[in-house]
Amino acid sequence: MKSESTSYASFPPIMNQAKHPALATWVAETGALCNADSIEWCDGSQDEWDRLTDKLVEAGTFTRLNAQSHPNSFLARSNPSDTARVEDRTFICSLREVDAGRTNNWQRPDEMRRKLTEKFQGSMTGRTMYVVPFCMGPPDSPLALIGVQLTDSAYVVVNMRIMCHMGNEVLEKLGTDGSFIPCLHSVGAPLTEDAQDVPWPCNDEKYIVHFPESREVWSYGSGYGGNALLGKKCVALRIASAIARDAGWMAEHMLIMGLESPDGAKTYLTAAFPSACGKTNLAMIVPPESYRQLGWKTTLVGDDIAWLWPGKSGKLHAINPETGFFGVAPGTSWQSNAAAMHAMSRNTIFTNVALTDEGGVWWEGHSEAPAHLVDWTGMDWTPGCGRLAAHPNSRFTAPAGQCPNIDPEWQNPEGVPIDAIVFGGRRPTTMPLVFQAFDWTHGVFLGATQGSETTAAATGSVGTVRRDPMAMLPFCGYDMGDYLGHWLEMRKSIQRLPRIFHVNWFRKDANGKFLWPGFRENLRVLEWIVKRCQGKIAGHETPIGWTPDWKSFSTEGLEGFSKEQFDAVMLFSREDWLAEITNQNDFFLRLYHSMPKELMCQRELLMARMA
Ligand code: OXD
Ligand code: MN
């Protein structure tokens, strides 16, 4: 393996060096620091994809899948120590600790820079450093953000090509002096003289570091997902949330979808749920047959991230800053999410799923288990062997444009106008199927206190609820209380406010049985939400918000769902809610130093309404 120190004078002329001197200087300096063997500017072309995927196959990182059943698709197996985001190694290095807040890890930026500069020194020895110009959001959107990721991982380059606008079109946009977010990434596995390369290089020590004031990301040691595809969680959420606070918009961990009612009216909504609440399935929901016959249609704009700003219509407008899905594979099937299965039918990278004998892919919940597989660690697998075939966090990286119900406006630079924002969580008790906030501030309170129950709770009491305000706990680039304050502040600049709702698909009866069928039937809840937004139906006022009654909630075609069941899933119990308010104490105490007074006041008002 090559390790001699590289003379940068000997490189072929670097494309665009003359065009953007500041970028060229940063690239050359970083290449020298990391001692990269060569530097490659990525153009985002098909040729480049073909060359890099061939190289990854040769390196053993990729296995090419069956060209008939999975055209232009690949399987990657990661190192078993590098399979997920590493929240405990994720840092927000603001100048002052208080600005990172109590829910983020913090270290002094100068100390972190010193420590990481040492790590990056020589970290790309024997490897190519790829220059990946990328744009989050449709390039002509007023919110579009350009970044440049320097990475020694070809796996990252090909994933980035699916996940965002990437390559020459972005360099063109950057011109000679455009500003960009510098993102430095190394897997931290230099190839010295006698070192043999491995299919998935990485380092046991990992750092995912954000400098929110100078808008920079430095990531070291991991090649997986959000740790390494820096446009996603690092730029589009953590750095973007800090930019958005300063510039009067919102970077949110939300899906964006459209609903067309039989009269042809289109309503767009966004939704934020904590993990494991079926966000992707809701984003790609296909209406049940009875709804399709009536003329209901659903479309998808984005499955993970929404950037929102007060648009020309006076409403909040939303864009999806990404162009691909990085979805969790297990549980995804033709039954649970046909749209996702279509989206990943070609041009897709699978990571840590199982390989079938026919060169296809399989994971738990995909279909009946084949008699033999190669599991995500590369070992033979047979049903009943006692191991999972796919890693629980195995993923598919698929182009969003391949989703059959992608919205025609999904790349509109002006975004889509939002009428409803939906929060929720996995709550076996307490939370009705759906209710509507009284107003914006009450809605922010609902989003701030949303969460999922982590232990089974007996009916009538609240279990351990992990609060995840707006599903942003691991993704907010600044203090969480200030972030909630920013939500309240936004109210002043939105002329036509979206309605805010809370949903809970997961309520159980005393025997632990789900009270609501979920999946496609969730469209019934969305119908109520749409009709509330259109002002077509009255809500029923309760102390917790507006709720549907049996007559205004469509159960037609929902075999055997009785009024008693509806009443059970919609039940508002004063006793449960008093327990809920008490249960919120820890959350309010944790954020006490910066929690907006309006939200404390919302809590008091809720208590007063309960009395
Ligand atoms: C994701 C996440 O991967 O939220 O989207 O963790
Ligand atoms: Mn996410």
> Which architecture of the largest domain does the CATH hierarchy give at level 2?
3-Layer(aba) Sandwich
CATH T-level topology of the largest domain: Phosphoenolpyruvate Carboxykinase, domain 1
Radius of gyration: 25 Å
**What is the distance, rounded to the nearest whole angstrom, between the alpha carbons of the first and last residues?**
74 Å
Number of helices: 18
In percent, how helical is the residue content?
25-40%
**Structural class, please?**
alpha+beta
Categorize the overall geometry.
globular
**Topology, number of strands:** 30
What is the averaged pLDDT score? 94
The CATH superfamily of the largest domain is known as Phosphoenolpyruvate Carboxykinase, domain 1
> Total domains, how many?
3
Which residue ranges are poorly predicted, with pLDDT under 50 across at least 5 consecutive positions? 1-16
What compounds sit in this structure?
Answer: oxalic acid, manganese (II) ion
Q: Beta-sheet strand percentage?
A: 15-25%
